[in-house]
Amino acid sequence: MPLAPLLSLAVGAFGLGTTEFVMMGLLPNVADDLHISIPTAGHLVSAYALGVVVGAPLLAAVTAKMSRRKVLIGLMALFVAGNALSAFAPDHHWLLAARLLSGLPHGAFFGVGAVVATGLVAPERKARSVSLMFLGLTVANIAGVPVATFMGQHLGWRATFLGVSAIGLAAIVSLALLVPRDHARAATDGLRGEVAALRSLPVWLSLGTTVAGFGALFSAYSYITPMLTDSAGYADSHVTLLLALFGVGATVGNLAGGRLADHSLRGTLFGGLASLVTVLALFPVLMQTQWSAALAVTLLGTAAFVTGSPLQLMVMEKASAAPSLASSANQAAFNLANAGGAWIGGLALAVGFGTTSPALAGAALAVLGLGVAGAAYAVDRRDVAPTAGRVVATHVLRHRETTHR
């Protein structure tokens, strides 16, 4: 497996993951400096997510005929520009626009990067290659976000965005040096052909599984701090360390999911979702003591991110004529899950079901994800004659492309 180009993708993923999540820890600093309220500063989180949802499919579609290596470098250049503008934003409105710009390349980078990663390895290692790229995202939760938050609190929030810009520049250099050159690609019918490739029920069922499955995660994770302080009895000062445990669990789950998915793509997906249902359903019990609460946070990250690589490959498989667009659309679905899961978890709290009720709402969403994944499996069995042996990521591109035509 060519580790050097995959790690260059991970560097870009590390920068993207850091800038996406660091704003949560910097909200008080930004609000004080720009003389705005905390809720108003919270719009900066939403602006980034909106940029991801809009930019992921749009940028992947309009760059369909370009060299993927050049696209990745261009996306990171846009990322650097957005973070540099954030660092020098004179007021809240300019910062809002800069955060939107920063989010535009996020989903497209992961989408195109997943296609590049799978093209660098043997068919039986595709899921592992995607998990190595995602490693940058999970490590960002362990190291990138805490360090960037500490920097912002002591050197000012603007220094954080300059630091993230430097990570983006390092990613550009590593991508230029380590990712093999490729030629411009001939899309079937340009933008129309890319979009047409998504007009199938299996693609939308795969995207729906992502929304429901990761919506389950964010239903609980968005409210993990009050669970840890009010239910488990942790002090506020301990929460950052506990969230790092989530990152550790996510890293373990991501790497395990990549390896398992290379043996059984759909089996790993079903197993990950079933594990997520179990962990979330046990949250009311696990949050009663401090040691079990720490275990719950770690297991949550593990169970959720086991499904990351299988979901990414599943969407690419179902839209084999436009894998970059489909893979990017999956990142947009991930951010819709972020917003939707947080909203559903908030509803459970608002009606008075208790501090751990967002986790139970998440368990229900994970059950829904299992149902959607089951429906996708049923559609596959209806449309494609069963083949002997296991379902393996080997068939991600060529096999499915020929069988669906």
From TrEMBL:
Positions of the Major facilitator superfamily (MFS) profile domain: 5-381
Membrane topology label: Multi-pass membrane protein
UniProt key word Magnesium: no
Pfam families cross-referenced by the UniProt entry: MFS_1 (PF07690)
Subcellular location(s) per record: Cell membrane
Keywords of this entry: Cell membrane, Membrane, Transmembrane, Transmembrane helix
Residue stretches spanning the membrane: 43-64, 71-90, 96-120, 132-151, 157-180, 201-224, 239-257, 269-287, 293-311, 332-353, 359-379
UniProt entry tagged with the keyword ATP-binding: no
Protein's UniProt name: MFS transporter
Origin species: Streptomyces xiangluensis
Lineage: Bacteria, Bacillati, Actinomycetota, Actinomycetes, Kitasatosporales
